[in-house]
Amino acid sequence: MFISDLAIKRPVITIVTMLALVVFGIAALLQLDTDEFPDVQPPIVAIAVPYPGASPDVVEREVVDQIEEVISGISGVDKITSNSLDSFGNIIVQFVFEKDLQQATQEIRDEISSIRNELPVEMEEPILTRFDPADLPIVSLTLSSQALSGPELTRIVDPEMTRELRGLAGIAEVNVVGGVERELTVELRPQALQAAGVSVSQVVQALQSQNLAAPVGRLTGDLDERTIRLRGRLDTPTDFKQLVVAEARGRVVRLGDVAEVKDGAEEPRSAAFYNGDQAVGIDIVKSKGFSTTAVADDIRSRVEEIQRRLPAGVTLRIVRDAGTRVENSVDNVQSGLVEGAALTVLVVFLFLNSWRSTVITGLALPVSVLASFVAVWAFGFTLNTMSLLGLSLAIGILIDDAIVVRENIVRHVEMGKDHYTAAFEGTDEIGLAVAATTTSIVVVFVPIAFMGGIAEQWFAPFALTLACSVLVSLFVSFSLDPMLSAYWPDPPYRVEERPWISRVLARFNTWFDRQAERYKGVIAWALDHRWAMVALALAAFVGALALPALGFIGGSFFPVTDDSEFNITLETPPGSNLAYTRLKAQEVARLAREKPEVAYTYTTIGGRSDAVDEGTVFVKLTPKHERERHQSAVSAELRRELGSLAGVIASISTGFGDGQKQIQLQLQGPEARELQKLAER
Length: 681
Description:
Layout: H1 2-9, H2 11-31, E1 44-50, H3 56-71, E2 77-85, E3 88-95, H4 101-114, E4 127-130, E5 139-145, H5 150-166, E6 171-177, E7 182-188, H6 190-196, H7 200-210, E8 213-220, E9 225-231, H8 237-241, E10 244-248, E11 251-254, H9 255-258, E12 259-265, E13 271-274, E14 277-286, H10 292-309, E15 314-321, H11 322-352, H12 355-362, H13 364-378, H14 385-414, H15 419-445, H16 453-487, H17 500-528, H18 530-549, E16 565-571, H19 578-593, E17 598-605, E18 614-621, H20 631-642, E19 649-653, H21 672-679
């Protein structure tokens, strides 16, 4: 073959080529971002419609129904769902997988614009967002203190801490949950207003005109100029009490003469709790195109710096860290990859009984694996579970070609040929068969990367990584293996001079040859009983299909994993206020903390959404080696207990993509009250 002939005749070129593949592979590996899963973009567009002051019925009738009607005619729409709340409508549009998401978003925007004149004037402009799993927080922090109040903690978090975190590379959003903004309340005294001859409008005008900071001019010198700024911002109740409201009956009337000024906090619209104690939560979302692990590492380092500067008694904790979870997941796959490679090399040594043959064939593994990272980088993939699984599956395949080539070269040497000639003729003899075998593997896996939809986005890294690594291994087996076999042969040994390990392996191979002779008898029996073998094969095939059909084997898109964490999503009845939802969320979190496997809980209500009748309880378990039960057992027991709670609907999601309930029933109809009655039956 041309490749093997050139490799044997030009050994320096062969070595340089292999080194180049290794160097380029290492360089590509260092450039790869690390994530738990591939970058998946579901074809889903969310439409948020603010309608201040409108009831849910009005929102549905005047806004949601009309928007649903026009967007239902867009090509590629698969399903539309909507929710109508107080002053707010939410519409989720799911398209078929073939639909271009950017085009779909623009078509929705155009359709809404075409009926904008028919929609209420009070309705604010709809906000369109494309659903992306990358928009979920990768790190969540809590700031808590037994000494400081909610407004004081909020002032520490926002804007100082949030501004510092936003300055890190790869940070897209920093959202505060449970923050309580400071608010000064002015309580007017009607009798004092009447006695002073001051109206309410005068008080309001005085507050608006005097509580400001603005530039009032410039101071110009011979060579420079400076801006003169009026610093009139008031901060404390005492400052506000001194504010001049009016001049009546020859005397100055100040705000403190006609009103009480109290330092307080605004009405909260979100809440956060760490182990039941009130806290201020910080959810951090990374930018697209940045590594989860790298961004999480930067956040952890910055949190340590911030903690050192915080006042005594104030604690900043990392309660949720996707970076650690991703690292553990990827490390597990990498460990399996290394273990598989080591076992493969040991098996090769066991049967070839030659450490030089083992090295020659084993070199196909590191070269092929490292070179495949160039393909991962070129295709724009990340170093994730799926791409590493492709390499793990390919480990046994990568060395197959090298073993076949090496074994045939050794056979030609045993026929009396010199190593140089044996390398040429041995490779040429089985070259076509080896190439056909490898090509068939590539042909099987490559179409997986082009099947379309979510499956394509998930399995493309797996399929293409495996295919590229197998192709590289074919090239290595046709170049490096023949070259080393020609110039680095096994040294001649007399039987008594062989190392002890070789003598032990020789006895093993002798025993294995005897088993092979017995296997010939099994093959002979199978050939004499063809119909029995056909029946056995059909029975095995039908039995394999029957296992999932009869329920002996379950099925799901994702495997059951133990990440030592899960989420509890809770919903209270529509119209519930923050106090009620807080009470129920605390009840759910307390029920979770009663489990001995639970390390802590992090509860959030509101935050990125204005809805206060929904919340999430993040449950962190102790490490796997410190508990006896699997995560699935803990969540299953907790799920049964949550079903008995009144006044709240709680569901557990135990992994990526497990946010929906396993069984969902939907009732559809024009009358919400009638649907409610039917659902309660």
